[in-house]
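Response to reviewer comment R2.3. The reviewers asked that we include at least one raw input/output pair. We reproduce the pair for Acyl-CoA synthetase (AMP-forming)/AMP-acid ligase II here without editing.
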Amino acid sequence: MQFNLADIFETVASAVPDRIALTYEDENLTYAQLDAEANRTAGLLAQAGITPGEHVALFLKNSIEHVTSILGLIKIRAVPINVNYRYTPAELEYIFTNSDSVAVVVELPEHQRLLASLLDSCPMVRTVLVVGETVDELRAAAEARAVSVIAFSGAHDLPPVAEFAPRTGDDLYVLYTGGTTGYPKGVMWRHDDFFRKPLSGGNPYGEKTRRDLAEVAAAAKEFPELSFLIAAPLMHGAALYSLFTFFTLGARVVLRRDFDPKQVVEAIEKDSVQVILIVGDGMGLPLVDEMERRKGEVDLSSLYSITSGGAIWSTSVRDRMLAVKPDLLLRDNFGASESGNDGAFTIDEAGNLRMPPSPNMVLVDERLNEIEPGSEEIGYIARIGNVPLGYYKDEEKTARTFPMRGDGTRLSVLGDMGRVEADGTIVFLGRGSQCINTGGEKVFAEEVEAALHAHPSIVDALVVPAPDQRMGQQVAAVIATYPDSPELTLAEVQEHCRKTLAGYKIPRSIVLVEEVKRTPAGKADYRWATSMASS
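Raw output as returned:
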């Protein structure tokens, strides 16, 4: 059958109505309660004139209203658009207009004022739904443009039960990428493909995809009542994938307003958290710092696993986590907004990230020909199967990232580089766009960053190319150290890196900063790092 995300959530809510679905700060909602709130939100959106297929931008931090907006929109077959709340005004204008959003859901006063300043540049926006009080600037700007302003609280007066039109697996979910190397792009997923790939067919801990909604319901009833804490903001792809995955399992999702390592560690004991989702070292480093500080003070016994996705997660950070709690299962997911969940990395003795053989992942050359296993040739990691339809309103980038082979198979080729061993195992080398060419030698930024993160004084680091007259490019590192650490020198950094890296990969220059700039989800801001390294 063809799966729809709203149908799946409603099926699980009917199967386990009394189980806790969402814990936000100190408030708990059961599946029945969350489904009722989502129905009310869906009714409010429909009353506001949102129709099937229309796009609605969610300019929100983590909150209950953020979750019910996502669910309410897919219930009425509309499309949620995730918005990075730290975008500049130019980036926000771009995402509102590029996504063709007809409405915006907004909460914080500073976000409302930003939206007010952009309304004249967003002609398709006809409705703004405000969580909380509406600021004067937004009200005035909306009146000048004849844009409707609706209080989100109006949903509370609507019935908790609703009838919805039939949905299909062809309904779209558009997920905007982080845009760390350019303006974000809207990845178009069919609901059925979204279920089968990012959500692992409803069976992330098994092999067989659920065949129908009856199997989804039965599996949710049998799944233990586990708590999953999503540390990332819901505007990030990994967080959205996790939200839907855990809802499909009938599990308890724990959310915080913002990523605060102190609150995350405290939630392990308070909410009996079994699994934490982070985004690489950007969250892993401050989290393990807090775990080390609070060891013996906070009960970590319930914590079974820490999972990362969407960014580099270095061996040194993992080793520190295991030193705090040796029985932890650490899982490093490989995936992207454009590919979904591709499985988990393993790490060999040399520190290489390895993906086991999979029929849905191959290595191809620049002409999309598969590279023979056992070859030493470096190629592009390509995903096959339930991949997105392409980028919203961008045929050129769609053709480049989602090319079609001669046999009609669509691939997802994101620029991840690797090599394939004789048994089909793919060794991940890094993202080609972050590859530094120094005198003809290729250096992948992620490998050098992982080495830097193992230094006891370094709290965070990004690696970028810097101009070099003789070599073309040189390896440059932008580094933040712990406040109480002695001043770090280039010679010390180089000596440390020589323990694990070839000579040509060692940084030739460093820039020390108070804080390495990352997105709210912990992803690298390479544009900022390049400007710092070049200044």
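The domain at 357-424 is CATH 2.30.38.10 (Luciferase; domain 3). The CA atoms of residues 4 and 169 lie 5 Å apart. Further pairs are available on request from the corresponding author.
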